[in-house]
Amino acid sequence: MVNALFFVYCWLVFVPLMVLATVALWILCMVLSPFVGPRRAGRLTAVPWSRLGLLLSGVSVHIHGREQLDPDQSYVIVANHLSQYDIWVLYGHLGVDFRWVMKQELRRVPLIGYACEVLGHIFIDRSNHEQALASLENAKRQLVGGTSILFFPEGTRSRSGELLAFKKGAFRMAQDLELPILPVTLTGTRDILPPDTLRMQPGPARITLHTPIIVDGDDEQAVENAMAISRRAIASALESGQFSPQPDSH
């Protein structure tokens, strides 16, 4: 009965309100961006949009390990990917200015795709290796003054909830730019909105920040080592379930 009522609420209340909020904040983003820049425009539009979506769908976000973050440091952030809700959880509550690396297909999503482009997020054409590399090269110029870049190194959502194999792009960028890697584990989002379904349910989501990792060396082995250490760190929070809930107050 409760699930049925929440399903009705989603379609009669949540969806219409979020459509209206998306349109209103998209317009505000387009107006603000030329004057205040993508960093501040994102903080004033995309962050409230994400938090509103979480609030209206009954999702609470808890964070562990925020002391790992240096607000003045740029990072290459790598996170596991379980659900479309990962985007709202990270954008709304990570508390870091970052640029997403996302697949080219998302550029075609009405309003959101263009807003992401205006805010400086990076679209990757995975079918065109040279163009993908060029996109990442252009992104490097933005990684200053605490602005980071965020990858889902699995390349896609995990349908099973298990951690998939990682791709090397994020770790090569960290090596090239001599930036620390910040591993992030997301849990709970798959239960809120499983892949390949529109049936949501309220619940808690968790962000676990791990100790930053340095790519120690300039060869391929250093990249592989950093990737393996990052994957183990992310997997540790998935496997152990250890987490000290602290509701986000930011």
Automatic annotation (TrEMBL):
<keyword id="KW-0594">Phospholipid biosynthesis</keyword>
<keyword id="KW-0472">Membrane</keyword>
<protein>
    <recommendedName>
        <fullName>1-acyl-sn-glycerol-3-phosphate acyltransferase</fullName>
        <ecNumber>2.3.1.51</ecNumber>
    </recommendedName>
</protein>
<dbReference type="Pfam" id="PF01553">
    <property type="entry name" value="Acyltransferase"/>
</dbReference>
<keyword id="KW-0444">Lipid biosynthesis</keyword>
<dbReference type="GO" id="GO:0003841">
    <property type="term" value="F:1-acylglycerol-3-phosphate O-acyltransferase activity"/>
</dbReference>
<dbReference type="InterPro" id="IPR002123">
    <property type="entry name" value="Plipid/glycerol_acylTrfase"/>
</dbReference>
<feature type="domain" description="Phospholipid/glycerol acyltransferase">
    <location>
        <begin position="75"/>
        <end position="189"/>
    </location>
</feature>
<dbReference type="GO" id="GO:0016020">
    <property type="term" value="C:membrane"/>
</dbReference>
<comment type="pathway">
    <text>Lipid metabolism.</text>
</comment>
<keyword id="KW-0812">Transmembrane</keyword>
<keyword id="KW-1133">Transmembrane helix</keyword>
<comment type="similarity">
    <text>Belongs to the 1-acyl-sn-glycerol-3-phosphate acyltransferase family.</text>
</comment>
<comment type="pathway">
    <text>Phospholipid metabolism; CDP-diacylglycerol biosynthesis; CDP-diacylglycerol from sn-glycerol 3-phosphate: step 2/3.</text>
</comment>
<feature type="transmembrane region" description="Helical">
    <location>
        <begin position="6"/>
        <end position="33"/>
    </location>
</feature>
<keyword id="KW-0808">Transferase</keyword>
<keyword id="KW-1208">Phospholipid metabolism</keyword>
<dbReference type="InterPro" id="IPR004552">
    <property type="entry name" value="AGP_acyltrans"/>
</dbReference>
<keyword id="KW-0012">Acyltransferase</keyword>
<dbReference type="GO" id="GO:0006654">
    <property type="term" value="P:phosphatidic acid biosynthetic process"/>
</dbReference>
<keyword id="KW-0443">Lipid metabolism</keyword>
